[in-house]
Specification:
This is Beta-3-deoxy-D-manno-oct-2-ulosonic acid transferase. Keywords: Transferase. InterPro entries: Capsule_polysaccharide_synth (IPR007833). It comes from Igneacidithiobacillus copahuensis. The structure is a single chain. This protein is an alpha/beta fold. The chain has a domain of 146 residues: Rossmann fold, CATH 3.40.50. Helices cover 31% and strands 17% of the residues. The chain has 12 helices and 13 strands. A 7-stranded mixed sheet has the order 2-1-3-4-5-12-13. A 6-stranded parallel sheet has the order 8-7-6-9-10-11, sandwiched between helices. β1, α2 and β2 form a beta-alpha-beta unit. α4 crosses α10 and α4 runs parallel beside α11. It is globular, with a radius of gyration of 20 Å.
Length: 344
C-alpha cells in the first residue's frame, strides 16, 4: 500500500460521490473505513473529507482535511462521460492538477520533489511501454488518417470541453477552441492545421464550445474518432490550451505549444504562451513522467491497488481485445445518457 494512503485517517467521509464509483473507491483505500454520505455526519475520531474534482467544500460543523480525486492520465478503454470503468484516479491534498490558480500535489512534486536515478529509469521504461502499446488516456477511435504527401508542417489542435474546470481554472489567457484555432492559424498561415474534436463532444455527451462549429473555417482537416496515438505519430507539433494531448505528445517527443497552464507546462519542456510565474524549475521528461504517471495517481485493478506498469499492461490487453470496435449497445446507451445529462 502506498505510504500516502497509509498516512490517511482511518475514516474517510466520501461526500456526494456517484454510486457507480463506490466500488472503485474501496479498491483505492484498503483498510480504511469509507462513509458515503450526502449530508452532515459526525464521525468517530479523526477523519478526512473526500471530494470529487472541484466540488465545493460542504459547511461541516467540524473542519476536516480535504482530499480531492479526479480521473488519472491513463484512465480506461472508453470515455469517462460514458461511465466506463476507470483504471486510475489521482488523489490530491492541496488542490487539483488542472487548477493553476494554486499549487497541487503534482505541482509540488515537480517544484520541490527529488527524483532518484531509479525513478527516472523506471519512468523511461514506463514511457517506452506506453509508446509500444500505443496507450493514451481513453484509448478510443477506429478511423484512420494519412498524412498527405509531399509532407508539409502539420500542426494538431485538440479540442476541449469548454465547460470543464480545466479551462475555467487552468487557462486564464484563452478559453475557447475557436479562439485557439484563430490564434494558431494567424501565427502559422502555411501549416496544415488539424482540428480534432474532443471525443465527449463527438459522442454528443458534452456540448460544442461557443462558435466551435466554425472551426472548419480555420483548419484544413477536421478529424473525429481517429486514435490519438496514431494521429500523434503523423504530426509535427501540438498546440493546445490545457489538453492532456499535449502531455501525450511530449511522451512521443513532439514539440508542444501551451496557450493555457496545464500541469506539464512551465518546466522547460513546452513553449508557453501564457506562462505561470511560480513555475521556475527545469525538469526532464523522465522526471515529469515519474511525477505524473508513477507518484501522483492511484491505479486499481479488479482486486485492489496496482502499479503503473500493471495498469499499462492491463490497458494494452483491454485495447487489444476491443480493437476499436463499438459494442452494439453503445449508441442506445449514449442516447439514454444524453437524456439524463441534457445534451442534444
Amino acid at each position: 500500500m502506498p505510504e500516502r494512503i497509509q498516512a490517511l485517517p482511518d475514516d474517510l467521509l466520501v461526500w456526494r460521490f456517484p454510486r457507480w464509483k463506490w466500488r472503485f473507491l474501496r479498491r483505492c483505500f484498503p483498510g480504511k473505513r469509507l462513509h458515503f454520505v450526502e449530508q452532515e455526519k459526525s464521525l468517530p475520531g479523526p477523519a478526512a473529507l473526500l471530494l470529487w474534482g472541484s466540488c465545493p467544500v460542504p459547511d461541516l460543523q467540524v473542519p476536516l482535511p480535504v482530499l480531492r480525486m479526479e480521473d488519472g492520465f491513463l484512465r480506461s478503454v472508453g470515455l469517462g462521460a460514458e461511465l466506463t470503468r476507470p483504471l486510475s484516479w489521482v488523489l490530491d491534498s492541496r488542490g487539483m492538477y488542472y487548477d493553476a490558480r494554486s499549487p497541487s500535489d503534482l505541482e509540488w512534486l515537480l517544484a520541490d520533489g527529488e527524483f532518484s536515478p531509479e525513478d527516472c529509469a523506471r519512468a523511461q521504461r514506463l514511457r517506452e511501454e506506453i509508446l509500444r502499446h500505443g496507450i493514451s488516456k481513453y484509448n478510443v477511435g477506429a478511423k484512420t488518417w494519412q498524412r498527405p504527401s509531399p509532407a508539409q508542417r502539420v500542426i494538431l489542435v485538440p479540442g476541449q470541453v469548454e465547460s470543464d474546470a480545466a479551462l475555467a481554472h487552468g487557462s486564464p489567457c484563452l478559453r475557447s477552441n475557436l479562439g485557439l484555432l484563430r490564434q494558431v492559424r494567424a501565427a502559422n498561415p502555411q501549416a496544415l492545421l488539424i482540428y480534432k474534436a474532443h471525443p465527449d463532444v463527438v459522442a454528443r455527451l458534452r456540448a460544442l464550445g461557443q462558435g466551435e462549429a466554425q472551426a472548419r473555417e480555420y483548419c484544413d482537416v477536421w478529424l473525429e474518432d481517429v486514435p490519438m496515438e496514431r494521429l500523434l505519430e503523423q504530426v509535427d507539433e501540438v498546440h493546445t490550451l490545457t489538453s492532456l494531448t499535449g502531455f501525450e505528445a511530449l511522451l512521443r517527443g513532439k514539440p508542444v505549444h501551451c496557450y493555457g497552464q496545464p500541469f506539464y507546462s512551465g518546466w522547460g519542456l513546452t513553449v508557453d504562451h501564457c506562462p505561470l510565474a511560480r513555475r521556475t524549475r527545469r525538469r526532464s521528461l523522465d522526471e515529469l513522467v515519474a511525477a505524473a504517471l508513477i507518484h501522483y495517481p492511484l491505479y486499481f485493478g479488479p482486486r485492489g491497488l496496482i502499479t503503473a506498469e500493471d495498469a499499462v499492461a492491463l490497458l494494452a490487453h483491454w485495447k487489444e481485445r476491443s480493437q476499436g470496435r463499438k459494442p452494439w449497445w453503445q449508441e442506445p446507451y449514449r442516447a439514454i445518457l444524453r437524456c439524463v445529462i441534457g445534451v442534444r
